[in-house]
Specification:
The complex is a heterotrimer of chains A (about 325), B (about 190) and C (about 200). Chain A is mainly alpha-helical and about 325 residues long. Chain A contains 13 helices and 2 strands; from the N terminus they run H-H-H-E-E-H-H-H-H-H-H-H-H-H-H. In chain A, a hairpin with a 2-residue loop joins strand 1 and strand 2. Chain B is mostly helical and about 190 residues long. In chain B, helix 1 packs antiparallel against helix 2 and helix 2 runs antiparallel to helix 3. The chains are: A mainly alpha (about 325), B mainly alpha (about 190), C alpha+beta (about 200).
Chain lengths: ~325, ~190, ~200
């Protein structure tokens, strides 16, 4: 492949991924509202379009045309940059995720991964972690008590759950012996019984819990917990800047669902009679649904419970899991 | 060509960011610029093909600068300017300038001489995490282990310092004790 | 939901007392509690409950402008002025009690004697912007001429719309079609009023 071909194909991939995933993030808000509503015996959005399908569009128009308020005492440049960091890092993290198996279209073989970094897992996790700079900067720059509290909670949440994510993913990585997501996927090519979740169930659970904390989803969404700190870091935001936080959050959820299904749930290998592309979409959809499901079912935790859970339960479990995996691998 | 463009872009952004870090009077600007600069540095690692180091740079400095933010949050009102009193600005400038110059000289000196030779040259077919692992666990095994033990010591010390009397509520206890003592003395 | 359910005020209260244990203090007990809570699967019970509700699809939403819940006959919304069934005259005899009793001072009326020496109401306005819908006017009216209706959607473009008598007076054609139903709600005598009547105790 020549350089120009490479550049053109990369740009096309970037545009496709950006387009599809920002649309998916918007559609994710619709799904979330609908599913939460059904679980709470409500109907959710119904009036805009058939079954409220155009609600996303209406919300988009509203957010785009709303006045962008910047508080007087805030640190303006940082206040303005923060949401962009949130959305940008979410999409950058997607760059190293192999989304589908290779396929051919118009006689060209397409690798549906923007950049095949050979340390893919670490790259995705690192960039997702730096995405938490968005709530941090937003909270600190907006000169607001609730914002500051949200920012402080961001710091503790990131610093503690980074560790759990890293350690929980370590054990499967030791088994595979590679940091590349494609290698990890190929390791599980033997079918249903080869999925890493069967050999590393503890790591899977830990990874999911830490992932919930890092994407700021319900049992751990302390950063913007309405009952405690109004809207946390997003208190002072309005219009499109506020919307960008949510594009970032939903994209992060999808990225995490991709990561979990690639590392633990067999990735895009064929699953029985289901072809690989469909299989991974099914897995990602289920994990996305699981994110919403827990939001309807489970209560929030307090910040001290969050710290307690991280340092006294999850971290020791992760370490023990690594030690046992190491022992088994050695024997 | 793309590499050159990327290199100059990254270096320009990094230098600008670190200049802001040093020059700005607002703690929030400095810290954000520091974080941005640190993450931009990872770009150089990616350009040089050291993916692993690049990613580690991102992960480590994301967390590290975030801890710095926590301190900033506790010590300053980060939305305001920090008034700094420097007693001898010329001396500070001289010392820091000299040390910066020394660093630059120290790192650029090998370029001048032609006798640069990699002690552990890149082996083909070995990916970069493995290459780092090999170096780390052969030549640098002792420093690595020492660093690990030191970190463990630091962690235990931190837990002990922070965990002492953690279950007792400071405010509640002080109030209750004072009340008791006042009543007792009367 | 039927009206009978609304009217039933004797709701039995099946409160159950749930015994709550004291929270554990010792570290080991705390640990045991965590293990118990983790492995007893309460989290999964929560998941199951919401999932069951989603699958059952037993939706309770009322899509308001399209659907409306029935309201109780005792509901006090915008007033209605009734007409006499036979002649079509207004029931109001111009006694002025409602104007007198109105605590928000929102009822104004103007009367005169007509050619039959019968009192005629020339002006009758209720300022609905002021009205607090206390229901005293309906209660005090001796003729059941002013009653509370069920129209609770009051939005309007101008305040002048809140005082029009023509809107609350039963239209004549409506009356001739026999659609003016006798009012069972607030201020009316209850359906079993006859049974409830007792003889005045005059045994002194």
């Amino acid at each position: 492949m020549t350089l120009t071909e490479f550049v053109i194909s990369t740009i096309v991939k970037i545009l496709v991924v950006l387009g599809i995933f920002s649309a998916l993030a918007g559609f994710g808000t619709y799904l979330e509202r609908k599913i939460l509503a059904f679980m709470q015996r409500r109907l959710g959005p119904m009036h805009v379009g058939p079954y409220g399908l155009l609600q996303v569009l209406a919300d988009g128009i509203k957010l785009f045309t709303k006045e962008d308020i910047i508080p007087q005492n805030s640190v303006k440049p940082i206040f303005m940059i923060a949401p962009i960091i949130g959305a940008a890092t979410a999409f950058i993290a997607l760059a190293a995720v192999p989304l589908l198996p290779e396929f051919e279209i118009f006689g060209i073989t397409v690798h549906p991964i923007i950049s095949d970094v050979n340390v893919g897992v670490l790259f995705v996790l690192g960039v997702m972690a730096s995405g938490l700079y968005a709530p941090l900067l937003a909270g600190m720059a907006s000169a607001n008590k609730w914002g500051l509290l949200g920012a402080a909670r961001t710091v503790i949440q990131l610093l503690s759950y980074e560790v759990v994510t890293g350690l929980s993913i370590m054990a499967p990585l030791m088994m595979v012996g590679s940091l590349s997501l494609i290698d990890i996927n190929n390791y599980q090519s033997g079918g249903f019984a080869d999925w890493i979740i069967w050999t590393q169930p503890v790591a899977f659970v830990l990874f999911l819990i830490a992932g919930f904390a890092e994407t700021n989803r319900t049992p751990f969404d302390l950063l913007e917990h309405e009952a405690e700190i109004v809207s946390g870091y997003a208190t002072e935001y309005s219009g499109m800047r506020w919307g960008m936080f949510f594009i970032g959050e939903y994209t992060n959820m999808i990225t995490l669902a991709f990561l979990a299904s690639l590392i633990f749930l067999g990735g895009f290998n064929d699953w029985g009679f289901i072809p690989g592309a469909l299989a991974i979409i099914l897995k990602v959809s289920f994990l996305f649904f699981f994110f919403l499901w827990t939001r309807a079912a489970w209560p929030h935790v307090r910040p001290d419970q969050l710290m307690w859970l991280c340092w006294k339960v999850l971290l020791p479990l992760a370490v023990v899991n690594i030690v046992i995996t190491g022992l088994v691998l050695m024997i | 060509m793309f590499e050159a463009i990327a290199f100059y872009l990254f270096s320009a952004v990094t230098i600008v960011m670190f200049t802001i870090t040093v020059m700005s009077k607002n703690a929030l600007y400095s810290m954000s610029a520091l974080a941005a600069g640190m993450i931009m540095i990872s770009g150089f690692f990616f350009l040089l093909g050291a993916d692993f180091l690049g990613v580690v740079q991102i992960i480590v400095y994301t967390g590290a600068v975030m801890a710095l933010y926590a301190f900033g949050m506790m010590f300053f009102n980060t939305t305001r300017l920090v008034e700094e009193k420097v007693r001898a600005p010329k001396l500070v400038f001289l010392l820091s300038g000299l040390s910066a110059l020394l660093l630059v000289i120290a790192f650029t000196a090998p370029i001048v001489s032609d006798h640069i030779e990699a002690i552990y040259p890149v082996v083909d077919g070995v990916e970069n995490p493995q290459a780092i692992g090999i170096v780390l666990f052969t030549k640098y095994l002792v420093p690595f282990e020492v660093a690990a033990v030191m970190l463990l010591v630091a962690m235990i010390a931190g837990i002990i310092l922070a965990g002492k009397k953690m279950d007792e509520s400071l405010t509640l206890k002080v109030d209750a004790d004072d009340e008791f003592q006042k009543k007792g003395s009367k | 939901m039927s009206l009978e359910q609304f009217k039933d005020r004797n709701v039995t209260q099946n409160y159950k007392f749930i015994p709550v244990d004291k929270p554990p203090v010792a570290p080991m007990d705390k640990f045991k509690q965590v293990v118990k809570r983790t492995f007893r699967g309460e989290l999964f019970v929560g998941l199951w409950v919401v999932f069951r509700e989603m699958v059952k699809f037993n939706i309770h939403t009322v899509q308001y402008p399209k659907e409306k819940l029935p309201i109780s006959p005792r509901y006090r919304a915008v007033h209605k002025l009734y007409r006499l069934l036979e002649s079509g005259y207004e029931r109001c005899i111009g006694c002025g009690l409602c104007e007198k009793i109105c605590i928000a001072n929102c009822i104004r009326m103007d009367t005169r004697y007509d050619e039959n020496q019968r009192k005629e109401v020339t002006e009758y306005t209720i300022n609905l912007g002021r009205c607090i819908f206390c229901g005293y006017c309906a209660e005090v009216c001796p003729e059941l001429a002013i009653v509370h209706g069920g129209r609770y959607e009051n939005a309007s473009e101008q305040r002048a719309h809140f005082v029009l008598r023509d809107d609350i007076l039963t239209p004549l054609d409506f009356l001739k079609e026999g659609k003016q139903e006798e009012f069972p709600g607030f201020g009316a005598v209850s359906p079993n009023a006859d049974e409830r009547i007792k003889k005045t105790p005059l045994a002194y």
